[in-house]
Amino acid sequence: MTAPTVFARPKTDIVYFKNGDRITCEIKRLEQGRLSVSAAYTDGSISIDWSLVERVESSQGFTVELQNGELITGTIEATPGQASESPGLIISGADPRRVTNPEVATIRQEEDVWYQSLHASLDVGMIYAKSNDQTQLAANAELSYTKPLWDITAETHTNFSTIAGVQTSNRSSNRLQATRYFGHRWLAVGIADFLKSDEQSLDLRATYGGGLGRDFIRTPRTSFTALAGLVATQENYSENSGNESRKNIESLISAQYRFFRFKKTDFVGAVSVYPSLSDLGRIRMDSSLTTRFELFKNFYINLSLYSNFDSRPPVNGRRSDYGGNTGIGYSF
User: Fold this and answer.
1) Which of 324, 285, 283 has its CA nearest to residue 171?
2) What Cα–Cα distance (Å) separates residue 77 from each residue in 69, 93, 95, 112, 138?
3) What 3-state class would DSSP assign to 70?
4) Distance of alpha carbon 131 from its chain centroid, rounded?
5) Is 14 exposed, middle or buried (CB count within 10 Å of its CB: 0-12, 13-18, 19+)?
6) N or C: which end of the chain has fewer CB within 10 A?
7) How far apart are CA 141 and CA 123, in angstroms?
8) For 67-125, how does the pLDDT look when each residue is reduced to its tens digit (9 = 90+)?
9) Distance between CA 273 and CA 228 in Å, rounded?
């Protein structure tokens, strides 16, 4: 019996640093200002601050996204800077292009193994108070699959609180989002969102839809995306609100801002507004703010804030639900 063959890219790519150093490795990807590489003398991947890199070169195929949203596919050839220009890259595809490092937003392998495109994170926080026998638990998990033209993300957020002699309170939010990039910063998004909130007497609000969006800012460290579209919702309220059930068609207007600081901070702020088209005058709004601070390799402390607002809830229903949590997490 012969052992199965493992297909992997050769570690013959070269990364040149601004201080004159260089390493031979396999370039995995560039995302969030982090150049991920794997070398023969390292156990797993390591991250490099892209702002410290002068240029890279590789005979393998990549898709390079520029800050203007343009997508270029091909091998990467390093170009030493001349007296009148900065060092940069030549993407030697069907239409060779010379670009400088500051123009590059992301770099992704063309033919990587599927599981190398998976990214996941999990964080958990817990508080217990003996004085009133109160327990609070918060958990957040995210799994994403990223390809040059696709980004599929599944995430779940749960908050659970109980006090002795008092009814428990639970909030859970689950979301699946698929994004298709078209180049020049344009994108299409499809979403499926499921919210349960005891505070708002919601047994379930299921939201399905999508829209078209654009990256107005796209750099290795910062992005700002706006989106407009349509969604359909099915809402089932608890007995406290008369077991009411609603179906709605809503427009969607959303924006997201992201900021990354190499190996230190990951900040994401998002807001979505849903003006109803089938119940004119009703407006819903969801917002969130998440900040991560790295403690040490792959471990981080997470701070999350959330808010849900409904201008026209059912009788006995609350107009808003908001809160926050913090916890220790791990990403890989």
Assistant:
1) 324
2) 21, 11, 14, 19, 47
3) coil
4) 39
5) middle
6) N
7) 7
8) 887 888 888 886 665 444 555 677 776 677 788 888 888 888 876 566 667 888 899 98
9) 10
CB within 8 Å of 192: residues ≥ 6 apart: 175, 176, 177, 206, 207, 208
Cβ pair 290, 303 in contact under 8 A:
yes
The position carrying tokens 């900065």 is: 86
d(CA 237, CA 206): 12
Residue that the structure tokens 């997470």 belong to: 302
Answer yes or no: is pLDDT of 219 > 50: yes
- Tokens standing for residue 172: 């859970």
> Mean pLDDT, to the nearest integer, of 270-292?
94
Hey, what are 331's tokens? 């990403």
- Comparing C-alpha atoms, which of 260, 183, 273 is closest to residue 228? 273
Helix (H, G, I), strand (E, B) or coil at 218: strand
Those residues whose C-beta lies under 8 Å from the C-beta of residue 34, and which sit 6 or more positions away, are 47, 48, 49, 50, 260, 262, 263
Q: What is the pLDDT of residues 1-54, one digit of tens each?
A: 343 444 467 788 899 898 989 999 988 888 888 888 888 887 777 888 888 888
Residue 241 phi/psi, 5° resolution?
-115, 25
Asked if residues 143 and 153 have their Cβ atoms less than 8 Å apart, the reply is: yes
Residue 149 Cα distances to 69, 76, 98, 319, angstroms: 11, 19, 21, 39
Q: Are 104 and 86 in contact (CB under 8 A)?
A: no
All residues at 6 or more sequence positions from 184 whose CB lies less than 8 Å from its CB, including other chains: 68, 69, 70
Q: Which residues contact 296 (CB under 8 A, 6 or more apart)?
A: none
